[in-house]
Amino acid sequence: MTGPVLSIENLTAYYGDFQALFGVDLALQQGQALAIIGANGAGKSTLMRAITGILPSPRDAIRLNGQPIGHLSAPEVLEAGISMVPEGRRLFPSLSVEENLLIGAHVRTGSRYWTLDGIYDLFPILAERRHNPGTALSGGQQQMVAIGRALMSNPDVLLCDEISLGLAPVVIRDIYASFPKIRESGASVIVVEQDIGQALKIADHVCCMMEGRVTLSGAPDALSRDAIHDAYFGVSA
Amino acid sequence: MIWLDTIVQGILLGGLYALFAAGLSLVFGIMRLVNLAHGDLIVLAAFLILTIVSALGLNPFLGALLAMPVMFGAGWLLQTYVLNRVLGDDILPPLLVTFGLSVVIQNGLLEGFSADSQKLSAGPIEAASLPLGPVTVGVMPLLTLISAILVIFALNQLFYRTRLGRAFRATSDDAVTAGLMGIRPRNVFAIATGVAMVVATIAALYLGMRANFDPTIGPARLIYAFEAVIIGGLGSLWGTLAGGIVIGVAQALGAAVNPEWQILSGHIAFILVLLVRPRGLFPRAND
Ligand SMILES: Nc1ncnc2c1ncn2[C@@H]1O[C@H](COP(=O)(O)OP(=O)(O)OP(=O)(O)O)[C@@H](O)[C@H]1O
Ligand SMILES: [Mg+2]
C-alpha cells in the first residue's frame, strides 16, 4: 500500500510572535476527500496557508508523496502539485473570468485533464460570462471561477477554504455537485468548512480543529454528534 | 491660425512628455513604486546611446536599438538587487532608495562625462518639416509623437493581450494570490522595470536628438513625467499620453503669451486638472 499523498506532522505556524498552530498532524490518502471543520479562529486557514507556502513551515513538517515541501515558497508548492481555492475567493479584479481561469494554468498544467473547456463543462454559466470582469459575478459564480482557477493547474491536491461562506444553500448545493467530477480527475481534496453537515456529506475523513490543534479525527459515520460538538466547541464543563 | 499652430506644436511636445512618463506609469501601475530616479535613468540612457553612437559611428536610431537590451538588463538588475529588497507596505524606503539612486546616477555621469552639454546628432532630419493642412510641423516632433503613440499602444497590447501582461495585472491586483498561481512577483517586477527602461531608452533618443542634455537635467524630466502620469490617472497608459499632451499644450500656450511662462503654465495646468479631477482624467476603477 502506498503512503498518503499529503502528510503533515507536528506542524507549527506563527504570525510574528503569535503561535497559531501547535503541532498539527494529519494525513490525506490518495483520492480521498478530507474535511477540516472548526470554529472561527481555530486555525483552519492558517493550516491552508502553511501547506501552500504562504506561511513558512519547518521543512519536514509537510510532505507531498513523501517529499518534504514545508520549506517551499507558494509558487514552488503550486509547481509541486498543490493548488488552493483561497478563503474569500480572491479573484483578480483586473482580469476577466476567462483570464482568471487561464492564470490558474500560468506555470503548471499538470496532467492536462482540466482545460478551459473542461471548466466550462463543469460550470456552464462561466462560459456565458467569460468576458466579464471576474468580480462582476454573483458570489456563487465567483466561487466557481475560484475553483476552476485552482483546477486549471491540474493539481494532485486541491485545497478549498470555506467555499460555502456567504452563499445561499441552493448555490452551495450546486457548487458541491461538482465535487464528484473533480474527484474523477484524480485529485485528492481537502475542504475547510464551517458547515458541518455539508462537510460530513462529501468527506471520507473528518478532522476537527480547535485553537490550533486537531482535536478529533475519523470517518464521518464513526463520529458521534456529541464527539464532534465537544471537539468543535471544547468540552463543556 | 497662430493659436492652431501653437496647439499643434503643444500636442507634439506632449508626445515627448508622454515618452518620459510611460515607463514611470508602467512601473507605478504594476508595483505602486514611484521611481524618483526615472528622469536620471532617461539621461543615463541618453549617455549610453551617445557612447554607442560615437564608438561605432552609428545613427542615433540604431544606437538606441543597441542600447535597449542593455537598459533592459540594467532595469532587471536594479529591480532584482535593489528595489525588490525595499518594496513593501511602507512606501518610504523605495522613495528614499530611488532618490539616492538619482543622486548616484547624476554624480556618476558628471564623473564620467563632465558637465558639458551633449547632443545626439541625427543629421538633416532634425531641421526637416512638412506641411500638415494649415500648419507646418517639424519632422522630429512628429516622429516623437508617433513614437509615443506606438509605445503606449504596444504597452497596452503587452498588458491586455499577452500572458506576461496577465501576470502583470494579477500581481498588481494581489501579489499573494498571484504567488498561489505560481507567479513570482519579484520576477514579474524585474521584467516590468526592464521594459520601463526600454521605454526610457526611446525617450532618451528623442530627448537627445531634440535638445542638449547634461547629467543634471534628469529631475526636471521626472517632474514633467510625474505630472503627466498624475493628470492621466495613476496606472492608465492612454491617460499618461493625454497627460503629456495637456502639459505640452499648456506650455506651448504659455510660451506663446510670454516665453518666460512656458514651464510655469505646464505646472499650472497640472494643478488645475487636479483641482477639477483629483484622481486624474482616466482613473483606474479599482485603486
Ligand atoms: N494575518 C494574521 N496575523 C495575526 N494573526 C492572525 C492572522 N491571521 C489569523 N490570525 C490568528 O490566527 C488564528 C487562526 O486564524 P485562522 O484564520 O487560521 O482561523 P480559521 O479557523 O480559518 O477561522 P475562520 O473560520 O474565521 O476563517 C486566529 O487566532 C487569528 O486571529
Ligand atoms: Mg479561515
TrEMBL record, chain A:
Pfam families: ABC_tran. Keywords: Amino-acid transport, ATP-binding, Nucleotide-binding, Transport. One of its GO terms (biological process) is L-amino acid transport. InterPro entries: AAA+_ATPase (IPR003593), ABC_transporter-like_ATP-bd (IPR003439), ABC_transporter-like_CS (IPR017871), BCAA_Transport_ATP-bd_LivF (IPR052156), P-loop_NTPase (IPR027417). SMART domains: AAA (SM00382). Residues 6-236 form the ABC transporter domain. GO terms for molecular function: ATP binding; ATP hydrolysis activity; branched-chain amino acid transmembrane transporter activity. Gene3D superfamilies: P-loop containing nucleotide triphosphate hydrolases. The keyword Transport applies. It comes from the Bacteria. Belongs to the ABC transporter superfamily. This is Branched-chain amino acid transport system ATP-binding protein.
UniProtKB/TrEMBL annotation, chain B:
It comes from the Bacteria. The keyword Membrane applies. One of its GO terms (molecular function) is transmembrane transporter activity. GO terms for cellular component: plasma membrane. The keyword Transcription does not apply. Keywords: Amino-acid transport, Cell membrane, Membrane, Transmembrane, Transmembrane helix, Transport. The chain crosses the membrane at residues 6-29, 41-58, 64-83, 95-115, 135-159, 188-208, 228-249. GO terms for biological process: amino acid transport. It holds the Pfam family BPD_transp_2. It is found in: Cell membrane. InterPro entries: ABC_transp_permease, BCAA_transport_permease. It is a multi-pass membrane protein. Belongs to the binding-protein-dependent transport system permease family. LivHM subfamily. This is Branched-chain amino acid transport system permease protein.
